[in-house]
Amino acid sequence: MDFKLSPRKALIEPPDGFVANGIARSAHSFDPLPIRLLDKVAIDESQKVIYTDKRTSGHPYFLSWIARNKRRAEIEVQICEIAHIATLREQGFTQKLSMEKSDLMVRSYAVDLIATAGKYGASDIHLMMRGTHTDIQFEIQSKLYQFATLFHAEGNAIARAIFQGIAQTKAAMFEELAYQNAQISGSEFPPECRLASCRIFRGPAFSLGADGGSFMTIRLQYLSGHQKEAGLPALSFPPRPAGKFALKEMGYSADQIEKIDLLMNSPSGVVVISGPTGSGKTSTLFQILQELARIRPYCRQVCVEDPVENPMAWAVQMVITNAKNDEEVGIEFANLVRGALRMAPKTLFLGEIRGPAVAMSVIEAALTGHQAWSTIHAPCPFTIVDRMELMDQVLLARKCFCDAEIIRGLIAQRLVPKLCEHCKTSFADGQNNNISSRLIKALRSRGSLENVFLFKEGGCEKCNFTGSSGRFAIAEVVVCDEELMADFINHGTSVARKNYRARLDADLPIFDQALEKVFSGLIDPRAVEEAIGRISLLPKDATSSI
Ligand SMILES: [Zn+2]
Predict the structure, then answer these.
(1) pTM
(2) Same domain, 41 and 185
(3) Would the N or C end of the chain have less CB density within 10 A of its end CB?
(4) How far is the CA of 277 from the centre of ligand 1 (A)?
(5) 98 pLDDT more than 90
(6) How far away, in angstroms, is 460 Cα from ligand 1 center?
(7) What per-residue confidence (pLDDT) applies to 388?
(8) In this structure, what CATH number is given to the domain that contains residue 286?
(9) How many A from CA of 462 to the centre of ligand 1?
(10) Rounded distance between C-alpha atoms, residue 278 and residue 530, angstroms
């Protein structure tokens, strides 16, 4: 048989030897590989050579698969490195999975996947088609495990086969860009699986590659008497993201990082980060969510964003696809959050709170025992409460959500350019024509100008002629407790703020932290006025600002 390999394209063509109705199979082609071996075996059908790594070569599933195939033809097994197998698979030396719904082989893969998850006693199967590849994970006793990494197209074919070929209760069509539900009766599976039914939720998701990303979550419901199979190969947690937690490098103090660590370790409740566009709040959240994936790679993270700002390889990132205006965004957002809650997430990122529907969804996530993170536009951490209340004074009255179990933390952040050490100019140099006398007076009322430095227009070689070297994140981190929440409800925001800031462990207001940096020559006072607020003349005997 003349068998030409055509990489990638071959994946979506019917396997060689399949007739139109997908029943006959060529005498040369191999039995379907067990799904767990799909990414660990490369197959050269024309030469009848099987490539696999040493570990897989001794796997009982592999041995019985080889035995079945050897009955039909003489085949050779070659042991090689797992990286070489991946390369061969990329070149097309794979068992071809067809996108055709009549394809019995893909259907058998889909059934095999669900039955295998059942043997592990998994509560959920997550298929994540990420454009570049597909991650298949099992949720077992509330922890995620990586089951297999397949090609994007392979995962897509299996997900379609599940939706179109096996599920009974479903929408008439598989729609790429719609969020869809479906159900499979347990009778589709061998009786020993003891499956009562499977509930499916699928839809588009942010993708890292050129092909559109999507996800499918399958919740397994068992009949009584279901038992996990003994002696199955151990699975490992999903891979941890590379890199390190960079909040310190961004400008957060050790104390603030400890407070954020406390918030990251609260099992439920919402943390809201505020700041205007360009304040770096989404970069901070990215760092936090990435660190959470490093600490607890076994916890499902689901994001609902509009739009997606940072790709997160470890999370499912749902996207708003069909909304035309703010009201529709709010409705779709709320629907997606409801969908997200069905994916057994531990951590949710719901961004950003622009209207009452999103605010209510965020509170609902907290009330149902999830850890949620979100963003909002508000001038300081305390005004986040006012901002939410103003969105709907009945449904979002502060007494409904000002509870330290619901709102765990409030953070405000700004970004300010860091002066270039090599070209910043001192007040003493007398070249400060562009700074107003009003600002000079205001600064003098607050301290000595001896260590105040200014930005040099045109910069120097060291700073690429920009005058600055990176930016500082300046933040105020508030860890909520009963006392603060009681103040919010009984005495209003300004009393709550004043009492909280009087505490010994409270952060200085962002403005005061920025002024400290001005008086130690790290940032230009004009940058403070641009990004944070006006520097006013300090009245005699006054101590703080804002
Ligand atoms: Zn410079």
Answers:
(1) 0.84
(2) no
(3) N
(4) 26
(5) no
(6) 4
(7) 96
(8) 3.40.50.300
(9) 5
(10) 12
